[in-house]
Amino acid sequence: MTYRCLTPFILLFCATPALAEPEREEAPRPIDEREEAPWDHLELSMGFLSGGRSYLKTPFNRAGAPSPTLSPELYAPFQHAPFDNVLANGLRYDVRLVVSYVRLTVGLDLPFASYSPTEANTRQIINGVERQVTLDSLGFRDLRFGIGGEYPIGPIAPFVDVMGAVHWVNARVAVDGQATDFDANSFGFSVRAGARVHVRKWFFATASGEVGLIGDVRWAAELSVGFAIL
User: Fold this and answer.
1) Domain spans in the chain, listed from the N-terminal domain onward
2) Which residue, among 211, 96, 187, 227, has the nearest Cα to 149 in the 3D structure?
3) Which is more confidently placed, 55 or 71?
4) Strand, coil or helix: 28
5) Mean pLDDT over residues 185-201, rounded?
6) Cβ distance 148 to 129 under 8 Å?
7) What CA–CA distance (Å, rounded) separates 140 from 89?
8) pTM of the model as a whole
């Protein structure tokens, strides 16, 4: 009789661990279950870059000053040539990981401004007075990050990337002979499309075009070569 009375408690005690243990959910299956695909690789590339940039909306600041706000007199030179359309030519370095058609890019641009002496020396009306404005120097550097996709067709791989870039700009502008140093930091987005052609399994050439969405870059074109580590 005693054992019969204890039977429900014994069954409850044995079932408690099963009830307490949460039900385990299976992890979602990946789209591509292969550990490695034929097109998976790491890229190292170097190339030439050319493009147009606009700095009309760039938040310039006096170099070393804590506030990004400039007086109308100091900001006026940035509303004219060549800041409205600067031609930039230089070098581009990229490191890229390609896994299952997905591209992850980190790169560095080292462009140099190209403008004529006429654009660098202008007469501008500032606060109702005609002043001589001279652009002594203009330099910029970009740190770029990209997420995109590609689809290889034989030795050719068309691709599209959404690029985000951190821009560093510095300029020296003289008004009536009095020079002032300025700098600015900004972030922008662009879309890049092109194709990679594998001359060898480990050596390739790339050509692409880029259109700016937000930020300093208006457009850009690139021609580069690189190595694929398979």
Assistant:
1) 37-229
2) 96
3) 55
4) coil
5) 95
6) no
7) 11
8) 0.80
Cα dist from 36 to 32, 39, 111, 230, whole Å? 9, 8, 36, 10
Q: Which helix (H) or strand (E) holds 95?
A: strand 86-99
Tell me which DSSP letter residue 77 carries: G
Asked whether the predicted pLDDT for residue 142 surpasses 90, the reply is yes
**Domain 37-229, what architecture?**
Beta Barrel (2.40)
Amino acid residing at 152: P
The residues near 83 (Cβ < 8 Å, ≥ 6 apart) are 54, 55, 56, 77
- Residue 69: its pLDDT value, please? 59
**Which residues are CB-neighbours of 211 under 8 A, at least 6 positions away?**
190, 191, 218, 219
From CA 92, how far away is CA 144, in angstroms rounded? 10
In the predicted structure, residue 15 carries a pLDDT above the cut 60 = no
* Distance (Å, whole) CA 152 – CA 158: 7
